Structures are given as structure tokens and as C-alpha cells.
Amino acid sequence: MTPVLPFIKKQIISEQFDDTPEHFQVYTERQLDKIEALAQLSDEQRFEMKVVANVLPFRVNRYVIDNLINWRDIPADPIFQLVFPQKGMLSQDDFEQMAVVLRNTSDRSIILEKANEIRRRLNPHPAEQQSLNVPYIEDAPIEGIQHKYRETVLFFPSQGQVCHSFCSFCFRWAQFIGDKDLRFSNREAQKLHTYLSQHKNISDLLITGGDPMVMKTDHLVAYLEPMLKPEFAHIQTIRIGTKSLSFWPQRYVNDEDAAQLVSLLERMVKAGKHIAIMAHFNHWREMATPLVREAIQRLRAAGVVIRTQSPLLNHINNDPEVWAYMWREQVHQGLVPYYMFVERDTGARRYFEVPLARAWEVYREALQHVSGLGRTARGPSMSTGPGKVEIQGIAQINGEKVFVLRFLQARNPDWVQRPFFAQFDPDATWLDQLQPAFGETKFFFQDEYDAMLNKQISPRAY
Ligand SMILES: *Cc1c(COP(=O)(O)O)cnc(C)c1O
Predict the structure, then answer these.
(1) CB distance 150 to ligand 1 below 6 Å
(2) Run of H or E including 193
(3) What is the pTM of this model?
(4) Domains of the chain from N-terminus onward
(5) Distance between CA 213 and CA 209 in Å, rounded?
(6) Transmembrane segments in this chain: where (predicted)?
């Protein structure tokens, strides 16, 4: 498959990126009508988008509209599906209910009430993140931090609680609809620093969001530079989870403080930290513009390691060829494929989910078409309450067809890498739909995990 991108004008004219700084222009649900390209849709289609965008977060910027979407191929275009609301993202019933409200009123409070009612049905906080992952300093919960796996702490800086565009399938969608209760954020880096300095078994700090790269470089300096102090010598790796390479590569090339950002990262690397950009790419298309290539080169020249991850998504990348091409292209540009995720059980999951059996097939077939350097992505992996569960394969054991599973990460490190087995189910899309194989009544970790949920033992067994 050759990636021909005739709709990207700059690409045809030259491989050179355009160095003129670009004004960041963003559209949300209220400005859907201002996006000229949508004029080619029918009134009915535009109304459908509004219905969905009043429930699930919507935000897109000009770079995505002008460079990543093939407007001659909508609605099927994968990047169009990735950012623009589609009717199927809500259940038929929820869709109809919101459509009725929108047809009958423009009163924001009535619309919001219906939106919130629907949102509550969409499992806004999966995997017990709020109840089990929040750490404590002297019995006081620390907001804006999650600590689930021994080695790695997640930090949600308050200025990074938005993204350059929103992904329609985002599992953190609830953070973007203004529900303060659901928002992880942290005004005080102080608490993060106290927690990290008191826990010497933490080696990785993962700064996430939203997207931390929406922050001005000044803010990133304030969070990152203290990590060079001796009391944080145990923090070897700082990971930054971001989709900015896809949605706004200008961040590293011609934003006002781009050079300052790249030099901050370089300074951290030179001081001995491993700086890892955990780049979110769902489709090779996002890696094909001259601007993203330039951004990648600048980051690599600064000594940053870029690792990549993505969920497997129906309508976007449910195709082994797309993954194989993406992973080859990543290796080509010096990136390291890291995770293939299973779409989480939240938000618009019905629209994007694929059966676990299919997920494994896509992974396996894609892996067969890349060299060893492209086979570093693990998965397909489900981020569940007890841990990250990988589907290792489908096997026939003593006449029983089973899924072979293992934890890649777990609340109890002792669970990691133990194979376990579930009855094969061609339709299952998540761990909670699987039954233990071989006549067993529960999975090996179930009792211990239940005790964590019931607060009989700590949610972190380490
Ligand atoms: C995936 C994940 C991590 C990182 O796990 P690694 O296997 O080290 O990449 C850390 N915390 C949470 C909550 C995660 O979901």
C-alpha cells in the first residue's frame, strides 16, 4: 500500500514544511456551522453531528481540517471519523432523545440536563480510576495524581486538561465536558513533588491530560525542571502522553515557544533523564505531513525517544494493513511502537469497539508484515480495573477453545506475566464479558481484586 495523499497540497508541491507560524484556530460544537468543508453535507447530516456533539466533547483545529482529512472521502475518511461526531456514536434511543430536545428548544439548561442524563449512562469513569488509583499523603487524597502500577505515577497538570483537537473515541471524554467531579487536575506541583520524593520505588513520571503539550513551555519548565534535583534521582524516565504530533506538530516547529520547548527537553536529556514522548497515532495518515516529519526530527535530535500507542478502532484502523503500514512508517521515522489498546468500555465504545477475537487477528496479521523492529508494540491490551490484560492468542487446549491472556501491568506486580485462560467468545469486547476456562469459577486474581474493591486490602499490593 502506497500512501498517496493527493489532497495535501503542500505535499505535492514539495516535501518541505511551511515554516510560517500558524495561528491556532479551533472549532467546538457551537462553531460547527463555521467549518466550510461541512457545507457539502446535507442539513440532516449536520444536525446529526450537533446532536452527538451536545453529548460527547467535540473540538477540531484548522491544521486537522486542512491537512489530515480527505474531504472527498467523507464520512468514511478515518481522520474525519476520528474527530467529527457521527450519528452511531450514541445509541439510537439516546440519539432520538437529544434530537427531540434540540428540535424543541434552544434553552442551554434543558439541553445540558438531557446531555448529563445520557452521559451518566456512558460509564464516564471506567476501571475504578477514581476510587482505586488516587494516592494519599498522610490520609489526604492528592488530586491530579493516579498511582496504579508500582513504577509509574500519572500526573494531570491543571493547565493541560484540554487537547489541540478531541478524539471522538476518547476514554477521558468525561474530563472535557466540564464535570468538575470527574476532572483529574492539579494546581499544586508541590504535592506531586512531595509524593514522588517520598516513594523511591517510582521510576517513571507520566505527565498526561488532556494533552500536556497544550501548555506553554513556561508551565512545562515549572513541572519538569525540579525533576533534576537530587531528591528525584530515582525518577529515571519522564513520559509525556500527547497527541500533539498528530493534531498540532507546530508545537515543536514554529509555535512561538517551540524552540524553547525542544531545548527544555534536550536539557533534561543531557542532565540524564530519559524523556519519552508517548505519541498517540491512530493512522499512518497523521504521520505523513511535512510538518509532523519535521517535528519528529527535531524531537529526536534533542535526544527524546518517541514511543507510539493507539487503540484499535472500528471505522478508523480496523485493518491489519493500516497498522502494518503505520508501524513500518514509525520505525522508518525512528519511533518505537509501544501499545495496541482495546477500545475502553466507556463513551462511544459501541461505535468503535471490535470483538477481542478480531483485535487479536488484526494485531497478529499486522505483526506478520513488519520487521522485528516493528514488533515492539504489545497488545491488544485492555486497561481494566485489575490491570492491563493482553490477549496473547486463541488456542485449543484439551478440546476447549480459549483465549490465552496475561497481565502486562497489574495492581499486584505478582500477577504480571502469568498466563490465564478464558472461554473463547467470538463476540466479547471486554474482560468483564469473559468467563474463566476449564470449568473454573473465577480468574486467579479475582478474590484479591475484590478485597481491594471492598477496601479490605490496599488497592496497590506493593
Ligand atoms: C498503562 C498505564 C501505565 C504505564 O504502564 P507501562 O506498562 O509502564 O507502560 C501507568 N499507569 C496507568 C494507570 C496505566 O494505565
Answers:
(1) no
(2) helix 189-198
(3) 0.93
(4) 7-12+22-122 (no CATH), 136-368 (3.20.20.70), 384-462 (no CATH)
(5) 9
(6) none
